[in-house]
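Run log, item B.
One chain of 389 residues. Sequence copied directly from the ordering sheet:
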Amino acid sequence: MPDRIYLDHAATTPVDPRVLAAMIPYYQNAWGNPSGIYMEAQRARRGLDEAREQVAGLLECLPAEIIFTSGGTESDNLALRGALASRSELGRHVISTPIEHHAVLHTLEAIKRAGCDVTLIPVDSEGFVEPAAVQAALREDTALVTIMAANNEVGTLQPIAEIARAVKERNPHTLVHTDAVQAAGVLDIRPDILGVDLISLTAHKIYGPKGIGLLYVRRRTELEPQILGGSQERERRAGTENVAGAVAFATALELAIREREQHSDHVRRLRDNLWLDLRERIDGLHLNGPVDFDRRLPNNLSLCFSGVEGESILLQLDMAGIAASSGSACSTGSTEPSHVLTAMGVDSDLAHAAVRLSFGAENDDSHVDRVAAELPQVIDRLRSLSPVA
């Protein structure tokens, strides 16, 4: 539907044609099981090995430090569960924040039920956590700190390198993990730059396919596998590898890093122009997340509108040909306000009126103009129907 406008790139992105072209040979010609010793298998093995080496080169790490997974959620689970299971003698205390993706928060809940102690460091009204607060919460038995690099709902860019330094200064044995799913293609996510031990990434946020992710695991970091049944990925993640996905991920990551500045400038300009238009046209408009736009994802605009429900706004926008979301794409169907917004101190009623607009490569100025014209009409119409507006 060419007349539709897609503004939910934080949820997923379309596959770049260049990425798709890199995948196709591994469905048509090199489709063998890479664990075999015959020619068909070895073609697939070469593709997998080259993809791993390509990713390692981009991240400036060792190929052995890359574990291919099914996506960001599995990578988060493997990082948290695998690291804790292999380090139980060093401690069972974990530090995180209340605004993490549910892939982390739900895993922390399970870990807590299993006997671990979890400390969630509060964030401020813009979603930031202070490195000093993380350092102050460290204990001798703190095995892991996990804090996301960029928030998927409000776009807050955490000072991960500062946090990692603060942690290592106090307790060099504590592992630091970051969910960088939203940060790839926006930030410099090289492990030595961030100073972390584990990094979760996924392809479908950077114009790659769904179903393929990775976990970077720093050399000599022990990690107990969570999926058993084979010796793949150096016995850290069993299961026949998704070779086409790995090749696609490597291609998407290379493009994202190579085109990072150009892409960021493009979506930032569109985001900023829309914000300037909307704040002039809509009363009762609230910006969620950092007011300093340099400290948030360049494509992210998270807003609340007093006197209306976010779900109603999204339905009206969809009918007008505009796709947006209320925040996390993984919480569809929930009647509760966003856990991110409530942790930031946003009033519950206002949090129910949240809308996230996230731009991508295919958006242009005409999309900004159309949304800037349509959204105020949607808000006015809904407020006129609301008994509490």
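Observations after the first pass:
- The mean pLDDT is 95.
- The radius of gyration is 21 Å.
Flagged for discussion on Thursday.
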